[in-house]
Design goal:
Blueprint: H1 2-174
């Protein structure tokens, strides 16, 4: 019985000691749960921070990509404008060249026309000279013909006068 009492007493005394151990274990467990909650919160915060960093990286990448696309678009636009300006300059140059070519062609035509006019004028001069020469030959022939006619007329008159004189002389010798 002593033993029973002693066991009971010890158990009564051990219960608060055990209870305090259970309280300590419970406190340790609560402390451990708090630490785990803090760790989980820290992990969640770190995960959230990592996710935010990843989103920030993705946003920066997206912005950089958009900026690069915008730069490429502006560069292409500037290139297209430069090509259009060069094409316009080349087209203007070609048009000026064509205008100059047409001007030269027109000037060449004018010069050919002037040469033809000069040649025609000279040809007219040659024709006029030939006509004058022909007229002069005609005049010479006419003069020769006139002089031959005059000589013939003079000879005829002389012969007629000589004949009349002979007739007159013969009348005077034979008769009167």
């Amino acid at each position: 019985m002593k033993r029973i009492v002693l066991t009971s007493l010890l158990s009564v005394l051990a219960v608060p000691a055990l209870a305090s151990q259970f309280d300590q274990l419970r406190q340790i467990e609560v402390q451990h749960e708090r630490e785990q909650a803090v760790e989980r919160a820290e992990q969640l915060r770190q995960a959230e921070a990592a996710r935010a960093r990843q989103e920030a990286k993705e946003e920066a990448y997206r912005r950089n990509k958009l900026a690069a696309q915008e730069r490429a678009r502006l560069s292409a636009l500037e290139q297209r404008r430069a090509e259009e300006a060069e094409e316009k300059r080349q087209r203007g140059r070609a048009e000026r060249f064509e205008d100059e070519d047409r001007e030269l062609e027109l000037e060449e035509r004018r010069l050919r026309l002037q040469a033809l006019k000069a040649k025609a004028a000279r040809a007219n001069d040659y024709i006029d000279a030939e006509l004058r020469e022909s007229a002069a030959k005609t005049d010479v022939i006419q003069s020769e013909a006139d002089s031959a006619r005059n000589v013939t007329s003079g000879t005829k008159s002389l012969l007629e006068d000589t004949g009349s004189a002979e007739i007159n002389r013969s009348k005077s010798l034979f008769g009167n």
